[in-house]
Design brief:
This protein is an alpha+beta fold. About 25% of the residues lie in helices and about 35% in strands.
Length: about 230
Amino acid sequence: MIDALPWQDIARSLDVQGYASLGKLLDPKTCKALVRAYSDDARYRSVIDMARYNFGSGQYKYFRYPLPEPIGTLRAALYPPLAEIANGWADRLKRDHRFPLNHADFVRSCHYAGQARPAPLILSYEAGDFNCLHQDLYGDISFPLQLVVMLSDPSQDFEGGEFVLTEQRPRMQSRATVVSMAQGEAIVFPVNERPVQGKQRDYRVKMRHGVSTLRCGQRFTLGIIFHDAA
């Protein structure tokens, strides 16, 4: 399934829009199973109350190793084509660092640097909750792309709670993009920055993401982050 995705179109969308849809990677049954398992604390290494840290309002939980299915499989399978995109970005931004094309090799480099805690997470929002604009950087090593997967059904489960991306181009005002997602749909987007073609050369654009205020219902999403945390 992952190999059959239109990766050239995905890379082009990341360049033009700053994000790309990978389509529906999870079926409704799998989405509902992940939501039901939210109350199973044995699956998670930590629980974060967003309001306590001024991150917004709501809650999220970081999975522990071994990652449950299908999260571990998706993380490993999506990494190689995304690493090719990431290495292309490194070329454009004149960086020496290159990412290995095997996720296990990349994770080993994270652990060697003292980043050994898994970063994939599940987020829960209720009416009035929101997530402030932020970046998911957990140490010196980070992979430049990450995913969010919608687990709830926007047509039935909640209203509001749109996924929001902002980009700050040099000497320009910030641009915000609101992304609508269907149940099971995955969106890939930059963790920190991305290259943008200028008149003479590529330049860096800083990116942040968040979630607008949920008006009613309950919203669950899965975040797949490829680097581990310190």
